[in-house]
Specification:
It is a single chain. By secondary structure, the protein is α+β, with helices and mostly antiparallel strands. The chain is built from 11 helices and 17 strands. The strands form 5 sheets. The protein has a 5-stranded mixed β-barrel with strand order 1-3-4-6-5. Strand 13 and strand 14 form a beta hairpin. The radius of gyration is 25 Å and the shape is globular. The N terminus is likely disordered.
Amino acid sequence: MLRSRVLRPTLIVSVVLALLGFGITPTSAATPISVSTAIGRQDGSTATVTGYVVGQPTATSTVVRSNFPNDYALALADSASQTGTSSMLYVQITSAFRSSYGLQSNPGLLGQKITVTGTLSAYFSHAGLKDTTAFSGGGSSDPGPDPGDYYAGAEGKTGAALKAALHTIISDQTKLSYDQVWNALKDTDQDPANSNNVILIYSGRSQSKSTNGGDPNDWNREHVWAKSHGDFGTATGPGTDIHHLRPEDVSVNAARGNLDFDNGGSAVSECSGCTVDGDSFAPRAAVRGDVARMIFYMAVRYEGGDGFANLELNNSVGNGTAPYMGKLSVLKAWAAADPPDAFEKRRNEVIYATYQHNRNPFIDHPEWISSIWP
């Protein structure tokens, strides 16, 4: 006796789709997935993946971050600071995209967030994305990492209310010791073109990470908000906050001292483009906006409620040991003339993802500067 078989509705749909030429895949290429999802889904399907460029794969377990040999491949990760190759997706760059996305031609892409469409298939005998058909993001027009709902509490606010909301948001942070700052700066300020070096903030010199110390031509930990302005020294808190601590040549650090920031003055030895006079200092033009945004961060983060002085901006120089930093009008002009670049955005992301777990809001939203300090 023959028994009739009842086809389940889901099976019927599958059969119909197959007859029409539609394969059923676990994901749609139109909806971006994370790198970790792509690594776990090496099934030959087409996918769109979003991640941070962390280097160029040259072998199954080797990814280089400088001296890129060609424009044929790049590695993506879910964090710009990722160093483990097992957490990276190796991306084949097809010929149409090599001039725009190959790392030999575009080393500044390192640390940038991009989106790529291709086939989820092994590359270099490693989890990969091959036969790529589309790239987007990266470059100077890239808005940088999206902090998601990090700033939800500041939405719709302006002026003093915005400053108060941002203070609450960014005060939730992990604090480092002063010794821990050394290793953190070797990561946050790494030279994109040479992973063995850091970039010195004021002078711009690329210098070996291992030459940190106190001898002439070593690099040390510069407090961009001078630690005597509020007398916080190197205490855990403002004295160790790497949003304003940067590598700098020992003698250039000494030349800056605890001066406020302003235009004008005489040239500074070993610091091309820097100037100094009796009451102020100016770094090279390429980082004047960076300096300004660090100062604005400090004035919002430290409001006097955690045992330290209330740090504020004014339009003066020669502030000495008072908890003030100037010159406000000049710092605002510097921030406008020098908007956040890829290096500064990567630095903000690494601090957020790896070290302090808070952000500098004026890198993510430069427009908030004029709202708080009109």
